[in-house]
Amino acid sequence: VQLQASGGGSVEAGGSLRLSCAASGRTWSRYDMGWFRQAPGKEREFVAAVSSGGTTYYADAVEGRFTISRDSRDSRKNMVYLQMIGLEPGDTAVYYCAADNSASRLSTWSAEAKDYWGQGTQVTVSS
């Protein structure tokens, strides 16, 4: 079982990036998927999530700038994307994808008790 995150990089403020998370090794059709981020010296925080049924939820800090989506056509290799526009220096962090089979409400998502984590991809936004 593996979550492989990619797509990070360095951009100037106002720029865009698209993160990808390839989930493989099991059936993902019942898993909710999402993204968290962790800046130096700070706790890991929720960014966005998409349910197995396609419902999405965003942190207030990224609402309107980030879009999460998933491609579930292959039940054993889901892709989850995070399209980020209007990036700000405050978005600088390591971004992690995560999978959760608890069926909890997306609005209650926290970094605790996630079933699987990806390895993280660095996003750096300069002013």
Task: Provide an overview of this structure.
With 127 residues, the protein is mainly β. Helix content is 0%, strand content 50%. It has no helices and 11 strands. It has strands at 2-6, 9-12, 17-24, 32-38, 45-50, 56-58, 66-71, 77-84, 93-100, 116-117, 121-126. The strands form 2 sheets. Strands 2, 4, 5, 6, 9, 10 and 11 form a 7-stranded mixed sheet that branches. It has a 4-stranded antiparallel sheet with strand order 1-3-8-7, with no helix packed on it. The model has no long low-confidence stretch (mean pLDDT 95).
Structural class: mainly beta
The total strand number stands at 11
Order of helices and strands: EEEEEEEEEEE
- End-to-end Cα distance: 38 Å
- Estimated share of beta-strand residues: over 45%
